[in-house]
Target: Receptor-like protein 12
Amino acid sequence: MLLKEISTLRVLILRSNKFYGHITCTESIGSWSMIQIVDIAFNKFSGELPGKCLPKWHVMMAVKLYFTENFTDANIYETVSKHKYQDAVSVMNKGLAMELLKIANGFTSIDFSSNNFHGKIPKELGQLKALHVLNLSNNFLSGQIPSSFGNMQQLESLDLSRNQLKGEIPTSISNLNFLSVLILSYNQLYGRIPTGRQIQTFPADGFKGNKGLCGPPLPNCPGDHHVATDTLPETPKANNEIEWNLISAEIGFIVGFGALVGPLVFWKQWRKRYFDRVEDIAFSILPPKLLRKWLSWKTKLDG
Model:
């Protein structure tokens, strides 16, 4: 295959054909140090993903600082920085088809979706620190999501949906600050979705189809709102329960008030004795000037 001889290959798009067979990691394929876009989606490739090739795809591994300090060929970074493709390229990014009229200097993408790949996801993918888009959906991949994915700090879109992945979502994924699309639906994942700055803001549809997953943005995990019974506050009384203490106080006030006012209203002799007693008290405590005014007012009232 002539592609093996192209050491400067930057874009490989074989999407939507009828290619089949295994992808082996030969020494020639491993020499694609400048590859930026690999798209072999919608074919019939099978076997395991070529994990041994990945660390040799240098452009996907390194940010600018890494290029300038560690590349054995000092001209590679200069060539990548200056060159822009004029031909339009269509890639899948963040779940949507995107037409690239010019490929940005740092844009990198891997799309192995809709094939027949099986086996575990290579942990070597975590070494691609400059990768922006990774789509492995619609395959037969099994095992756990590698925790090394947390090293892909430039990753913006990750789609692992419709596989046979098991286990918990690694907490390292919650540290991917540039991640704007995360689709893990229709696998066999379980446990609590890790908490982070962004992961709870993703749509719940990106996690559906995993019966064992729970926690925001999905429904809460069992026991999230469980409170021990001995710490619960005392249950308040029902609205229709009779408050006997309050009623007793009200009855006592009414009886006492009636016992004091009732004789004054209905018993003339008691009323006369009461006011006579009040006059005696008034004469004993009131000053003379105020007492004279009170007597003049009482005389006018009696007259």
